[in-house]
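Hi F.,

I've been meaning to write this up properly since the lab meeting, where we talked about keeping a consistent format for the predictions we share between groups. The idea is simple: the sequence comes first, exactly as it goes in, then the structure tokens exactly as they come out, then a line or two of notes. No screenshots and no reformatting. I'm using this chain as the first example so we have something concrete to point to.
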Amino acid sequence: MKTHAIRKTAISVLALALVATSASAQWQRRETGPRIPPVEDVQSINLIRTLSHHPPLMEAWGPFGGYILRGSTLPDRDREMVILRTAWLNGAEYEWGHHSRAAKAAGMTAEEVRNVAVGENAGPWSSFERYLLRAATELHRNSAISERTWAFLKARYSDQQMIDLIFTVGQYRMVSMALRSIGVELDEGLEPFPEDVPRR
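Output, unedited:
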């Protein structure tokens, strides 16, 4: 009986340790510092200062990133919703911080920004917005938009907008991988992830 109790206690402690490890993982990189430090003499945000170690990549990636942000056929609010959702799903707090600002500039409220983290079932989203958030989630989880979500969005979006939606999520998933792997630290004044929304 005593052996069974010890084993049960050990399992409980292990489970708690795994939960704690998972919950703290998003903060680990900030605590340990970046793997590649920002270039000191570049005056810009930390992402650009870090990627300045690789000028050919910056030159190639810059125009595409600029198109997604400034030339895309997506409405600004829609674009920022899917970028925020992608940042949240990928655990990219740096991207979340920058695009929380951009989302508010595009007309989103602070509550709506927070509700993007919760997902399509949070807050008074319109039906279209629910499917927009669902599309970002489906692309993250399955690398494809489902037939139902596609049909709903396509009733409003053009072919170009559907393509831009996919490439926007893809761009920010890629950037999220770089941010988290390199350990790019938050720029001063950036809004962190909402503390009241649990990470899954």
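Notes:
The radius of gyration is 19 Å.
The mean pLDDT is 88.

If this format works for you, I'll send the rest the same way.

G.
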